Amino acid sequence: MPYGDAMATRTTRSEERRAEIVRAALEVIAERGYRGASLAAVAERVGLTQQGLLHHFPTKEALLVAVLKERDQWDAVPDSAWRTDLLVSLVEYNAMRPGIIQTFSALLGESVTEGHPAREFFTRRYTAVRANMASVLRAEYGERLPSGLTPERAAPLLVAVMDGLQYQWLLDPESVDMPAAFRDFLTLLGEN
Description:
mainly alpha; 9 helices
């Protein structure tokens, strides 16, 4: 086998193994939550030693960032396709997967500390999300919302409501109806 073919095969196997590890991590996190998920549990699930897993993901945080990126791929909608009704559907969908939302929220909270491995991921992600939400609001309301705010001024508020509701719901799911509260917020924006 030529050297280039061998390298490509090795790379493909490594990518497949990484994907398998990410899926296993997602399962473990969904079952045990962020704090209960250990590298050893993930390694065991994919038939590796913890040292073998560390070859692919050097830290738990690096693995969780990979899980978050995978999660974003599942939630991906072409930027031009987002509408406020799809945002409601996304909030409803998130209410059905507390383990994933808990992982996202825990990493988000920790990422605000200097040097955290997820900090850059979340910084880039929020820049893109705010821009997408401004586009959603512009498509829905034009250059001004009924309140007079521009889409760019309202977008961070929209994102804050979505994430803030997730935290409240995770802490007290019996008291916080996340989808209903989000629909109420859209009413405040001028949604009918």
